[in-house]
């Protein structure tokens, strides 16, 4: 599992990479609500999903978003969480 965050303009991209056999389904969640379940890329045995957040406001401060990778009903999904933190630029 690997997580990468990128900032471009006012948008923030979060990429989550996972591998396994069978290939995992990679999803993004916030407080039990599914945000994104589309894996954009699969290369070899690596799947990733990029969550792009729109312009962030104060209401997003300290929001916890979780990425989950699951590839069977026999094992527990792997999860990684990000807490959104921001500061004002003048």
Provide keyphrases for this structure.
Ig-like_fold; disordered N terminus; 4-stranded antiparallel beta sheet; Ig-like_dom_sf; elongated; Ig-like domain-containing protein; 90 residues; mainly beta
Structure description:
With 90 residues, the chain is mainly beta. It has strands at 2-8, 11-19, 25-30, 33-36, 41-43, 46-53, 64-70, 78-83. The protein has a 4-stranded antiparallel beta sheet with strand order 1-2-6-5, with no helix packed on it. Strands 4-3-7-8 form a 4-stranded antiparallel beta sheet, with no helix packed on it. It has a domain at 14-51 and 62-82.
> What is the radius of gyration computed over CA atoms, rounded to a whole number of angstroms?
14 Å
Total helices: the number is: 0
Low-confidence stretches: 1-9
Strand order of the largest sheet: 1-2-6-5
Helix content bin = under 10%
Shape summary: elongated
Strand content: over 45%
State the end-to-end CA separation.
36 Å
Biggest sheet descriptor: 4 strands, antiparallel
Strand-helix topology:
Elements: E1 2-8, E2 11-19, E3 25-30, E4 33-36, E5 41-43, E6 46-53, E7 64-70, E8 78-83
Antiparallel strand pairs: 1-2, 2-6, 3-4, 3-7, 5-6, 7-8
Organism: Portunus trituberculatus
Protein name: Ig-like domain-containing protein
Region (Disordered): 1-20
Could you give a short description of this structure?
With 90 residues, the chain is mainly beta.
